[in-house]
Amino acid sequence: SIRATLKEGFSRVLRQRPIPGADGTVAVPGVSEPGPLIEFLAAALPPAAAVLMTMTLLFNLWLAGRAVSISGRLPRPWPVLSDTAFPASATGLLGAMVAGSFLPGLIGLIASLFAASLLVAFTALGFAVLHALTRRLKSRGLVLSVLYASVMLFAWPLFAVMLVGLTDTAIDLRRRFGGAPAAHSG
Fold it and tell me: Model pTM?
């Protein structure tokens, strides 16, 4: 019923003002049949909202931690974020949630929300891995700047960064290729 409500809402939003004599059907400029578009939007909106919420919470957590650290009230040293790691079972959980997202009804919807949030977490892990792997490069600043700029310009590199996070969880890239961690936070 959630997806049906979203479809109805998108249909109402996309419906143009009825022309005298027209039947009031949904019309999208440049799209001859809006049904598939509405279907896609209804399916993609909940996971997209989960992605946005997860990114917002991650940023707020980091910002709050930095604020407390700057104030001198952080009871422990600021963690080295580039040393973040997930248990191997996290990839299995992601696989189960992706598979579950194809189920009908509320179970499929909830699984898609968890899958989307886990994909954001694996993307964050991928950035952590890349920060760790570039510690010894003389051109680290340039490499990371190009990475972040390409993510902002094109967005598709996020998929590659997420794959780095998944690969690190499976085979521990930092231990294999990163060497000893640096003494500073990454």
Answer: 0.77
